[in-house]
Amino acid sequence: MTIDKLRIGQIKFTNALPICHFIDRADPDVEFVPGAPTQLNGWLANGEIDAGLISAFSYAEHADRYVALRGLAVASRGPVGSIFLFSRKPIEKLDGCTVALTNQSASSSNLLKILLAEIGVTPEYVIRQSDLPSMLAEAEAALLIADDALYWSTRDLGLFTYDLGEEWNKRTGHPMVFAVCAVPKQLVEANPEKVRKIHRLFLEGKRKGQADMEAVIAQATRMVGQDDAFWRSYFGKLIHDLDEELVSGANAYFAAAHRHGLLPAPVQVELWGDES
Q: Is residue 13 helix, strand or coil?
């Protein structure tokens, strides 16, 4: 079966470097499109890319249309190190306050809504560009992800700072899956060899990244700054696999999202492929 040109969405942030830094970009039949998770969510839903690392929440919104490629995710078992709520008040005091959400994330924004609802806090949410000073100019707290969150987390701002991966794990005991590599079921049915090629490209990128973290750290330093020790600590918190244990964490997150009215129906992750 002929494999047409592959269009693959790639998270542009450092949290995906252990998967994406070494992906082979020399193949003329493959086009990589970098973007923030929310951009990739829309591109995949609209058929503008064939696959991509998208927000886990967006996967849940389209679970009847997508599969998740086994072994590929951005996740954590506890602190994630780059998804933070910065707040002028303790988190339990935010009831009725304005909370600014980054416009770059679906999984983290809905995770924050779940965590606050679970402790009986109902703020007013606004979605803003990811700029902490301007967000806090109109809100008591602000959610940032990825490199923006990393940047501000290293500064002494005199704010309460909450790592959402840690908060989720502390309250549920589950790992948190923030992003998965999703492919439309229609593509799997129409051209499984194309999907296998996509899967192999991502898995080989991950294997090379995990085998040469020095190069991954060097690229992260070029992108954001900081030193080797910072990046070793950060990448040590992240998980880039997707197995049954992590799927159970994702399913628990989806169940909580449904319970709090963020998803219209309960859904579960459907894994596709193997890691051989």
A: coil
Domain count of the fold of the chain: 2
Q: Do 68 and 193 reside in the same domain of the chain?
A: yes
Query: Looking at the predicted structure, is the pLDDT value of residue 70 above 90?
Result: yes
Q: Is the pLDDT of residue 269 over 70?
A: yes
The whole-number pLDDT of residue 183 equals 98
Instruction: Domain of residue 113: give its range.
Output: 83-172
pLDDT band at 111 (very low <50, low <70, confident <90, very high): very high
Q: Is the pTM of this model over 0.70?
A: yes
Q: In Å, what is the CA distance from 185 to each residue of 5, 63, 182, 213, 250?
A: 18, 9, 9, 33, 19
| Residue 132 contacts residue 144 (beta carbons within 8 Å) | yes
Q: Is residue 237 part of a domain?
A: yes
Q: Is residue 1 part of a domain?
A: no
Contacts of 90 (CB under 8 A, 6+ apart): 160
237 near 18, Cβ under 8 Å? no
Domain boundary among 147, 172, 197: 172
Same domain, 205 and 267: yes
Residues 24/10, Cβ–Cβ less than 8 Å: no
Does residue 47 come out as left (phi exceeding 0), alpha (psi in the -120 to 50 range) or beta? left
Backbone angles phi, psi at 128, to 5 degrees: -140, 165
